Amino acid sequence: MAAENEIGTRLLGAAIAVHRALGPGLLETVYEVVLAHELRKRGLKVERQRPIAIEYDGVRFDESFRADLVVSDRVIVELKSVETVTAAHRKQIQTYLRLTGLKLGYLLNFGAEVMRDGITRAVNGLEE
What we know:
Elements: H1 4-22, H2 28-41, E1 46-56, E2 59-71, E3 75-80, H3 87-100, E4 104-109, E5 119-123
Parallel strand pairs: 3-4
Antiparallel strand pairs: 1-2, 2-3, 4-5
Helix pairs in contact: 1-2
């Protein structure tokens, strides 16, 4: 199984390819379905809109939120198509990592003029 950083490298290459082909300004769901397709072409397992369970106050909530993409069961991806990524967006991916126990996540903003400017990497105890 590929390590998180290797998955991340392949993920970013796929995101850049999708952004170059489609450009900014489409709905998040368009980027989600096309990026999932591109990642599968690159040999990665992808789940879209995966329900994530959390535990709170000793109670398990099976569907507290849905991850836009989970890649190879190791990397969580939150997609946006907005003019500006906010601190709240960045906190969201960090919280997703904490709640899932995953070590690597990306916030990808397809609304950015250049994809490179729309990438936010988040880690949760990942060895670099």
